[in-house]
DNA sequence: CACGAGACCTGTTCGC
DNA sequence: TGCGAACAGGTCTCGT
């Protein structure tokens, strides 16, 4: 489920007061958080979930550490465990939940952290793409990430300059986490639609006004999604509702909300790409 | 440097 | 009904 709004929603939930009661279901919004809890032990149910260090060292190094904070960087969840940092990437199907003592494991649980008070933080990941790192310095893992879309340094001018240093089609470029950190397939398509930019447009063909519009569209769509706890699709359900506000993503064949033209789907960089062929005209290559 | 293909995984949905 | 193909929120690596 994880693009920036979904990760942000999960991180916000992990920051909840730890004395909140556990809800009857596994709903995200009402679960207690983890900040302040101390780790008793860790169960690794799928070894490859642990990216670094080795499973045994991972387990021994986190034992006894207390969580002092939780944050997001791009699509990474950062768990501050002085003197270490745990990083979690949910990839395609990862999910985190906090459960009370005695709660049984679910089918696709891959890693479980049990705290001294009995509560548990569980990483569930159907497709096994998700990874967890334990490092001294988070920059070991994050050093290649681009700016966060909300970073103050990412001014319209800076965004325009970055676009013009590249000669890439804009859609795959937005998915490149080294270029900008946090966008995925949904929000790239939705932002390009809002900015009326064709996904095949070359990045260095965008004008300053188009660049500014695109940056604003990215921020707008992310803010709106975060306000709705992100998007929930198919069997990966987190209680978000932004999927009800998609304008193009998975709307192939449906009329464009602006002009009525059927939304088209193409494959770009091996990812489904959705756009309105009338609102998002492709400029002739210069 | 830019891009496409293949890997890594499991599950659901679609088409015949 | 059955069965294989296509597809799914991500990212890495390799070859051209």
CATH architecture of the largest domain: Alpha-Beta Barrel
CATH fold topology of the largest domain: N-terminal domain of MutM-like DNA repair proteins
Radius of gyration: 20 Å
- The percent range for helix content is 10-25%
Across the major sheet, the strand order is: 2-9-5-4-3
List keywords for this structure.
single chain; 286 residues; alpha+beta; N-terminal domain of MutM-like DNA repair proteins; Helicase, Ruva Protein, domain 3; 2 domains; 5-stranded mixed β-sheet; 4-stranded antiparallel β-sheet; DNA-binding
Give a verbal description of the structure.
- It is elongated, with a radius of gyration of 20 Å.
- The longest helix is centred in the C-terminal third of the chain and has 20 residues, at 208-227.
- It contains seven helices and eleven strands.
- The protein has two domains: 4-142, MutM-like, N-terminal (N-terminal domain of MutM-like DNA repair proteins), CATH 3.20.190.10; 156-275, Helicase, Ruva Protein, domain 3 (Orthogonal Bundle).
- It has 286 residues and is α+β, with helices and mostly antiparallel strands.
- Strand 4 (76-81) and strand 5 form a beta hairpin.
- The strands form three sheets. The protein has a five-stranded mixed sheet. A four-stranded antiparallel sheet has the order 1-7-8-6, with helices on one face. Strands 10-11 form a two-stranded antiparallel ribbon.
- It has helices spanning 4-14, 55-62, 139-142, 156-164, 170-175, 185-194, 208-227; strands at 39-44, 50-52, 69-73, 76-81, 84-89, 94-99, 109-115, 120-125, 131-135, 264-268, 271-275.
- Helix 1 packs across helix 7 (208-227).
- The chain binds a DNA duplex (16 and 16 nucleotides) through residues 1-3, 6, 48, 75, 89-93, 108, 125-130, 166-169, 172, 175, 177, 184-187, 230-231, 233-236, 249, 269-272.
